[in-house]
Design a protein that fits this description.
Strand content: 5-15%
Structural class: alpha/beta
Shape: elongated
Oligomer: single chain
Distance between the termini: 47 Å
Bound molecules: phosphoenolpyruvate, manganese (II) ion
Radius of gyration: 26 Å
Largest sheet: 8 strands, parallel, barrel
Number of strands: 8
Strand order of the largest sheet: 1-2-3-4-5-6-7-8
């Protein structure tokens, strides 16, 4: 995914953050237009509203369906805002494309399903509209980066170049402060692998409560996200879906005004120096690890000569516990220390197995 273009060029092209806002669901023409006008006044350029709503259980409000498409067109005509909606299958894609919707997003339940993703990608390719279309792919409900990347690639392969990701958090069993766990390392890894892919943050679905929107927006901005997609409703408490997490357009304006936007591209000389120091320390770490592995290979030979098993669980336990304690004394979390040393141990075992394999193929079972 290399030759990507900005998600939006003219309206918000160079502005950071890109803001997409609107109700979770389009409920009526009146609710859509009242919310859209409020958002326009709040300075929003892109309006969102779901018309097909994937619900966890049957019986909930499943969206108004195609009757909502002309409402979105009307928002565009009356306010000039671009409009975005969610699609989840071929039929939705075709209807939304025919109606001229500018931006399509794919929800978290759909991006987890490669069959659905492929049929959407095929519908986009067949429409001949891929080139001018913007498509945003939410992370799948489960914390599976490969599945998210696969979903993005299917849309990219359909010819879409105005492509972006939306981080909306990941499902976890049980009750938690956030509705969906952020697991920030997953979108970070996506950004590391695809530096030109814009990623927006969806604080509404991560937080699940309106009080969490402002801090999550600030966190996303501090972390360098390209933009935000936020649920906003003219009468949030009466919303037909996701009532607890929606804010009025007026409240959204206050939240956005309060954000501190840092220039993430700026690097100063002292930052550069500190980064060079980090590079030097990382190289030192690699050399130390290499020396440790060389000793492990010697231990492997010793164990082989003395017909001892490679993994001795008592020793493994000691390593994890003592390193966790030592690290904790220096202010590092014991979980972090355990995960570092379990990876180091795994590589040591692998290297010892290699020594054994080599010993056997060299035919000198003992004296390597
Ligand atoms: C939505 O944006 O309203 C929505 C259904 O989101 P998600 O797919 O993230 O649950
Ligand atoms: Mn929603």
């Amino acid at each position: 995914m290399k030759d990507l273009k900005p998600i939006i060029d003219d309206v918000t092209g160079c502005r950071r953050p890109i803001i997409i806002a609107g109700p979770c669901s389009a409920e009526s023409l009146e609710q859509v237009m009242t919310t859209a006008k409020g958002l326009k006044e709040a300075g929003i350029d892109i309006f969102r509203a779901g018309i097909w709503k994937p619900r966890t259980r049957p019986g909930g409000f499943e969206g108004v369906g195609v009757v909502g498409l002309p409402w979105l067109k009307r928002v565009h005509e009356e306010t000039g805002m671009r409009v975005a909606t969610e699609i989840a299958n071929r039929g939705h894609a075709q209807a939304a494309l025919e109606a001229g919707i500018d931006i399509l997003w794919i929800g978290a339940r759909t991006s987890a399903n490669p069959f659905a993703m492929q049929e959407i990608a095929d519908a986009i390719a067949e429409s001949g509209l891929a080139e001018k279309l913007t498509v945003l792919v939410k992370n799948p409900v489960n914390p599976d980066l490969e599945l998210w990347i696969g979903a993005l690639q299917r849309i990219y392969n359909a010819g879409v170049r105005r492509l972006g990701g939306i981080h909306r958090g990941f499902t976890a069993y049980g009750k938690h402060a956030y509705r969906n766990q952020p697991q920030w390392h997953i979108p970070f890894e996506l950004a590391r692998r695809y530096p030109s892919l814009p990623i927006l943050c969806d604080p509404s679905h991560i937080g699940g409560h309106r009080e969490l929107i402002s801090p999550l927006c600030q966190q996303a901005m501090d972390m360098g996200y390209e933009g935000l997609i936020i649920e906003s409703h003219c009468n949030p408490d009466e919303a037909w879906s996701d009532a607890a997490q929606q804010v009025t357009p007026e409240m959204l304006a206050v939240i956005l005004d309060g954000l501190t936007i840092r220039d993430v591209r700026q690097t100063t000389e002292s930052l550069g120096m500190m980064r060079r120091e980090i590079d030097r320390l990382d190289n030192e770490l690699i050399e130390v690890l290499n020396r440790r592995m060389a000793i492990c290979r010697d231990i492997g030979r010793y164990k082989m000569e003395h017909r001892m098993p490679i993994v001795q669980t008592g020793r493994y336990d000691d390593i994890l516990n003592s390193r966790a304690r030592a690290g904790q004394e220096m202010g590092m979390s014991p979980e972090f220390m355990r995960s570092v040393f379990s990876s180091v141990h795994e590589e040591s075992v692998r290297q010892q197995i290699e020594v054994h394999k080599k010993g056997i193929t060299d035919g000198n079972g003992c004296a390597l």
